[in-house]
Amino acid sequence: MKITVSDVEHIARLARLELSPEENTMFTAQMGNILAYVETLKGVDTSGISATSHAVPVENAFRRDDVTPSIGIAQALANAPDTAGSFFRVPKVIE
Fold it and tell me: Considering Cα of 77, then 82, then 87, then 93, what sign does the dihedral take?
């Protein structure tokens, strides 16, 4: 796929960028080089490579989802700076 100056101008317009004629020419060449490299990568045999979603092995760090008893209202409110009955009281933020 060949990138043209009008393609770069269109992309710049979408990104709300104002490019000089020199920048248009420079980015046209750079984007052309990127696409040429991608074409080179398409030729690499990846048939023996399994697909991955992460660059490094990732293990699930979540705990088991077991049903346990609640800590209760009194313990939940024990460190609250201000309470109103069985609720946390917070400063008013809407005037």
Answer: negative
**The one-letter amino acid at 72:** G
Q: Is residue 65 domain-resident?
A: no
Determine whether 7 is exposed, middle or buried from the number of CB atoms within 10 Å of its CB (0-12, 13-18, 19+): middle
Assign residue 16 the CATH number of its domain.
Answer: 1.10.20.60
Q: What domain range includes position 23?
A: 5-42
C-alpha distances out from residue 80 to 21, 65, 73, Å: 62, 27, 11
pLDDT tens readout for residues 37-70: 999 999 999 888 888 878 888 888 788 889 999 9
pTM greater than 0.70 (yes/no): no
